[in-house]
Amino acid sequence: MSEGFVSRAFRGRRRNPELEGRLPPGQYATPDFPVLSAGPTPRTPLDRWDFSLMGEVDGARRWSWQEFGALPSETVTRDIHCVTKWSKFDTTWRGVSVDTLLAGVETAADHVVAFCDGGYTTNLPLEDVTDGKAWIAYEYEGEALAPEHGGPARLLVPHLYFWKSAKWVRGLELVSEDRPGFWETLGYHNYGDPFQEQRYQGD
Ligand SMILES: Nc1nc2c(c(=O)[nH]1)N[C@H]1C(S)=C(S)[C@@H](COP(=O)(O)O)O[C@H]1N2
Ligand SMILES: [Mo]
């Protein structure tokens, strides 16, 4: 066996994300970007789009599309993991950090419920959408986020199963009592950590 073969094989293995611990249990990596929607794709015109913080906040906050676009944005590259077992590595998004939206907000809430055009909801602990863990993303791979993938804007919470990344998101309700969302009510795990394989209630 030539040295060239060995070092090529070694390099190949080191680049294998599965061996780097990036692939959660039960998942496979794919270059595809499947579309998973529980209903039709809503198409809200941008002049009627806004993003709101509601619930237990010291005065509700609302941004028009134009105001939202003027907020500081971040570009992030993250792995995403769908409960239907596909994972996609190194997806790049641009959007507004939830930290930016919550800056200066006083709240006693410790959970949020994301709400969306079309009626989809999903619940998350407040601490899972703060400290650099979640964004309202409006670009994917340098392009405006496609409607089927949640455009004009979606929640991006890459460290949890992708059903928590609510498409067509229109706001966050801050709540002090956790309230299960769409899939969580239908038997999916309340938290959804892919590395703990928290797919369904009881996992
Ligand atoms: N509003 C809304 N958001 C949603 C969904 C949905 O049906 N409606 N599906 C969720 C699920 S189960 C997954 S896996 C991802 C899929 O996102 P994608 O279609 O961009 O791959 O969106 C999540 N966000
Ligand atoms: Mo999903």
How is the topology of this model organized?
Elements: H1 3-14, E1 28-29, E2 50-55, E3 61-64, H2 65-69, E4 74-81, E5 86-97, H3 98-102, E6 111-116, E7 121-125, E8 135-140, E9 143-144, E10 154-156, E11 169-175, H4 182-185
Parallel strand pairs: 1-5, 2-11
Antiparallel strand pairs: 2-3, 4-5, 5-8, 6-7, 6-11, 8-9, 8-10
Bound molecules: the ligand Nc1nc2c(c(=O)[nH]1)N[C@H]1C(S)=C(S)[C@@H](COP(=O)(O)O)O[C@H]1N2 and molybdenum atom.
Residues 33-38, 82, 116, 118, 120, 149-150, 162-163, 165-168 line the site of ligand MTE.
How would you describe this protein?
The longest helix has 12 residues, at 3-14. The protein has 203 residues and is of the alpha+beta class. It contains 4 helices and 11 strands, in the order αβββαββαββββββα. The strands form 2 sheets. Strands 1, 4, 5, 8, 9 and 10 form a 6-stranded mixed sheet that branches. Strands 3-2-11-6-7 form a 5-stranded mixed sheet. β2 (50-55) and β3 (61-64) form a beta hairpin. The protein is 13% helix and 30% strand. The chain has one domain (46-196): Oxidoreductase, molybdopterin-binding domain (Sulfite Oxidase, Chain A, domain 2, Alpha-Beta Complex). The mean pLDDT is 93. The chain has helices at 3-14, 65-69, 98-102, 182-185, and strands at residues 28-29, 50-55, 61-64, 74-81, 86-97, 111-116, 121-125, 135-140, 143-144, 154-156, 169-175. Bound molecules: the ligand Nc1nc2c(c(=O)[nH]1)N[C@H]1C(S)=C(S)[C@@H](COP(=O)(O)O)O[C@H]1N2 and molybdenum atom. Residues 33-38, 82, 116, 118, 120, 149-150, 162-163, 165-168 line the site of the ligand Nc1nc2c(c(=O)[nH]1)N[C@H]1C(S)=C(S)[C@@H](COP(=O)(O)O)O[C@H]1N2.
